[in-house]
């Protein structure tokens, strides 16, 4: 498809750009990407090029601010918006929930920005991604409020839970996706979500089984010291559990000691402090690069920032394979 026929989109809460990579692989053009994290924005621009991403706190940004960025820089007007607000506050696995967690209001902010952008550009669609817990019983009312705001922004809504495992990713990662089609442009459209067919084809071994030994973190370590790939590094294994032989493949010794199995997919790549999954050898935690491959990022991708920032980026991204499947499906509904 020629560049002239690419579908321009903007990405909110873009992170390191995994979700966007799925769309750009299907002839969409990300003209602007915004995120509050400096390292994530640096990663995005290093891999996607053209300085597309910008550091921007969307919690305090208005729709007019984004319009100004588009108009003042002569960017192509977007036809769609993709992205998902930080989601830990709605996660079933979040045992440290706070009633006043500021991230709780970010989906509402997403809806307000969407309304402003739709008013200015008459968008065709949007996609909102979040953890499966958002659609659960404990957050049902909140999710309903979000969907009401999305409808008021001018969209006909469709929601489903998609698991990255079904789309060829070596990881169990169920997530809620809300697709909105412009209610005036597509009043009769009934969106059907893509159906994956690859559940049995991806294992931890298939993605990281042939990698060489990693480099371990040290304060004096320089990027050039990391062997094989700039992100193939991990924390020094300090716990006695890494040495006494008790960490067996597939065993779960609490959130901090979940050992992956070679011949099964990974648990969800979403790591908190000291919660990076254990390599099937039981002798260390995964490297950032190994987690990237389990997240579906391509081998050539590079994450920037310190070790902690890289772990955050790989945890927050949406697998590109899921993005590509949604991109293909949405294209079928758009008028050209």
Question: Would you summarize the structure shown here?
Answer:
This protein is an alpha/beta fold and 336 residues long. It is built from nine helices and nine strands.
Number of separate strands: 9
Spatial strand arrangement across the major sheet: 3-2-1-4-5-7-6
First-residue to last-residue Cα separation: 13 Å
The helix-and-strand class reads alpha/beta
Q: Report the CATH architecture of the domain at 3-196 and 317-331.
A: 3-Layer(aba) Sandwich
SSE arrangement, N to C = EHEHEHEHEHEEHEEHHH
Return the CATH topology of the domain at 3-196 and 317-331.
Rossmann fold
Ranges with pLDDT <50 over ≥5 residues? none
Average pLDDT, rounded to a whole number, is 90
Query: What does the largest sheet look like?
Result: 7 strands, mixed
Which percent band covers the strand fraction? 5-15%
The global form is globular
Question: What helical percentage do the residues reach?
Answer: 25-40%
CATH class of the domain at 3-196 and 317-331: Alpha Beta
Radius of gyration in whole Å, from Cα?
20 Å
CATH homologous superfamily designation of the domain at 3-196 and 317-331: Vaccinia Virus protein VP39
């Amino acid at each position: 498809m020629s560049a002239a026929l690419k579908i321009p989109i903007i990405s909110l809460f873009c992170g390191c750009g995994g979700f966007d990579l799925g769309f750009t692989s299907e002839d969409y053009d990300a003209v602007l990407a915004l995120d509050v994290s400096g390292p994530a924005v640096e990663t995005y621009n290093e891999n996607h090029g053209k300085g597309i991403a910008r550091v921007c706190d969307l919690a305090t940004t208005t729709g007019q601010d984004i319009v100004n960025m588009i108009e003042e820089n002569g960017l192509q007007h977007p036809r769609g918006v993709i992205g998902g607000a930080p989601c830990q506050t709605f996660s079933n696995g979040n045992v440290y929930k706070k009633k006043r967690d500021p991230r709780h209001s970010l989906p509402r902010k997403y809806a307000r920005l969407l309304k402003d952008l739709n008013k200015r550009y008459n968008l065709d669609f949007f996609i909102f991604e979040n953890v499966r817990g958002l659609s659960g019983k404990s957050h049902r009312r909140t999710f309903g409020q979000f969907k009401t705001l999305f409808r008021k922004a001018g969209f006909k809504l469709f929601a489903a839970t998609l698991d990255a495992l079904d789309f060829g990713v070596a990881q169990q990662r169920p997530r809620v996706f809300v697709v909105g089609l412009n209610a005036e442009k597509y009043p009769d459209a009934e969106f059907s979500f893509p159906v994956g067919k690859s559940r049995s084809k991806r294992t931890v071994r298939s993605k990281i089984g042939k990698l060489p030994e990693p480099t371990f973190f040290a304060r004096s370590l320089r990027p050039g010291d990391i062997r094989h790939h700039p992100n193939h590094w991990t924390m020094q294994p300090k716990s006695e559990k890494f040495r006494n032989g008790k960490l067996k493949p597939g065993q779960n010794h609490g959130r901090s000691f979940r050992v992956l199995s070679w011949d099964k997919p990974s648990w969800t790549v979403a790591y908190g402090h000291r919660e990076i999954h254990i390599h099937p050898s039981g002798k260390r935690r995964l490297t950032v690069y190994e987690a990237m491959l389990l997240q579906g990022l391509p081998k050539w991708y590079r994450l920037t920032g310190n070790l902690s920032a890289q772990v955050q980026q790989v945890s927050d991204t949406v697998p590109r394979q899921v993005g590509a499947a949604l991109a293909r499906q949405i294209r079928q509904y758009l008028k050209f």
